Amino acid sequence: MTNMSWKRIKLNFTGSLKVKFSGRSRALKRIEEYAVKGTYPVIVIYGPEGCGKTALFKQAIEVFRAYDYAVVHINPLAESKEEKLITSKEVKQLLMEIPEPFEPPIKLISIAIEILYKAVKRRLKKRIALLADDVFQAIGLNQAETLVKKLLNMIEYPSINYEKIAILVASSEGASRERIGRHRWASIKALWNIDKEGFLELYNQIPGDKPDFNHIWKWTGGNPGILARLYESKWNVESIVDELIRTRNITKLIKTLNNTERKLLEETINNPDTLWEHLHQKEAQNLLNKLIERNLIIEIYDRDPQAWIDIPPPEKDPNLGIGKYIAWQTPLHKKAVEKTLKTTK
Fold this sequence. Notes:
Rossmann fold, 17 helices
């Protein structure tokens, strides 16, 4: 069963540019499956920063609406108040009943649940969906497991009589993946950068003079967040690389490495699977954890389509920094580390 009454939405790509949601056909089909059946357990989606998790959730609002859901999307790390909590229009009036402020971040979860429960109690909707974006980063790793268990309780032990419920949580916080995954509370799905066809669709919506698509693909690996930053910087690749070096504190990371760890990192530039191949060494384990904590690389556990909400990355692509088991989040993340290694003793 599918319902194609929803349309692809317009999104803020940068402060001055809106684009139509591009690609992700397989992911949207999976969202429709969740809308038809509801979710059990909680669905937790992991992917590189800037890969489009927030955009997918905003598009998912329209998909769930088409299946008659009341929807609340929260994003504690959003810059504007309006983006921190978004509701489907059918229940927007319920948001007006909630006193501000929407802080601390954990309070957003309670507000979202309150709105959805009111929607059912007042018979506005019988189906409810909660889309929680970047909450693990906002509340801290120590609270992530508790939050997922709380959300699972909404599914297993509901305090209201809803017809269906869907709960999706998105995160780029790789360090929490293992902690969440060791419980039965969540089903973990991975999300990679946009595939080449969908990324070309996005690229074609960017106005003005721009580099050849193949160059942009080589820099971004299909990451729309990096593409937006390149557009805003007037395609200044080095400025984005330097920004990554600053924001990820890569210089400090490299200065703390011992000789063995540094050699492993140098080898990882050209072969990200180096760390996987040396995982029996304590130094490789430590370095892997440090790179994951800084959102520089991501582990790829398998490429079974059931483990991915969209199309998984290729089996290997050295040009994009993708190995079989480990990948750089984007080619520019790899370039940032490589540049720092050359300039840091």
